[in-house]
Amino acid sequence: MVIIKSPQQIELMQAAAKVLVACHRELRKKVRPGVTTLQLDQFVEEFIKSHGATPEQKGYHGFPYSICASIDDEICHGFPSAVPLRKGSIVTIDIVVNLNGWLADSAWSYQVGSVSKEAQKLLDVTKECLYRGIAQAIPGNRLGDVAHAIQTYAEGHGFSVVRDFTGHGIGREMHEDPQVLHFGTPGTGIKLREGMVFTIEPMINSGTYKLTVDRNGWTARTLDGGLSAQYEHTIAVTKDGPLVLTEQD
């Protein structure tokens, strides 16, 4: 069942999103060669708690960290580690903030120093996929319109869209209805209504969309070893169009 949020509830989610956005802005300054993702995890946890909030991912179904940190061929749910980041890598940091019982969720792919042309193109296309999907999130459209906009842009640039992981409704729970696919047919899926709040979070690969999961039971990586990138926003559907709660700019 899709839970429709009131304007007041969306404001409460915006407050959580404000903490999350501030955290990502600080991360921009900290992602660099030689830094470890364990250090980034510690920073994020301390930052969130210092703002009166909690990192919602820590302990979720046993997940042991405050962030997901996915590097290069890792698609999502990467475990932070003590291995220093290397120049030329891509690292995606996924954070969920809980402030007074209301959640906000956003993942962002960061360059570690300068990256290859292939990696830069993947990052640019993936971010554009996100915003093309968001543009379709208006009352009366369907989730298939969001999915189709993402898929056609990614595949038009020679990339693939991960099928196994999706966006999701969010509010008091991290994962609510609806499930938000990033591939699909326009005019299909549930109709969007004012007050819906969900994430759009395309994961785009340089090669195949197929994946494998590490022995830790969490970390997904590309089957062919190709690069993967992801950008994610929490958005609300309003009568005036999509409201991006986690916008960083």
Keywords:
about 250 residues, alpha+beta, Creatine Amidinohydrolase, 4-stranded antiparallel beta sheet, 3-stranded antiparallel beta sheet, 15 strands, about 30% helix
Give the helix/strand layout.
Layout: H1 7-30, H2 37-50, E1 54-55, E2 68-71, E3 74-76, E4 90-99, E5 102-111, H3 117-135, H4 143-156, E6 160-161, E7 167-169, E8 176-180, E9 197-200, E10 203-205, E11 211-213, E12 220-222, E13 228-230, E14 233-238, E15 241-244
Q: Which CATH class?
A: Alpha Beta
Question: What class, by secondary structure content?
Answer: alpha+beta
Uncertain segments are: none
Q: What proportion strand?
A: 25-35%
**Secondary structure: number of strands:** 15
So, the CATH homologous superfamily? Creatinase/methionine aminopeptidase superfamily
Evaluate the radius of gyration.
17 Å
Q: State the end-to-end distance.
A: 32 Å
- Portion of residues within helices: 25-40%
Overall geometry comes to globular
CATH topology category name: Creatine Amidinohydrolase
The mean pLDDT is 98
Biggest β-sheet description? 4 strands, antiparallel
- The topology string of helices and strands comes to HHEEEEEHHEEEEEEEEEE
Number of helices: 4
Number of domains: 1
**What's the CATH architecture name?**
Alpha-Beta Complex
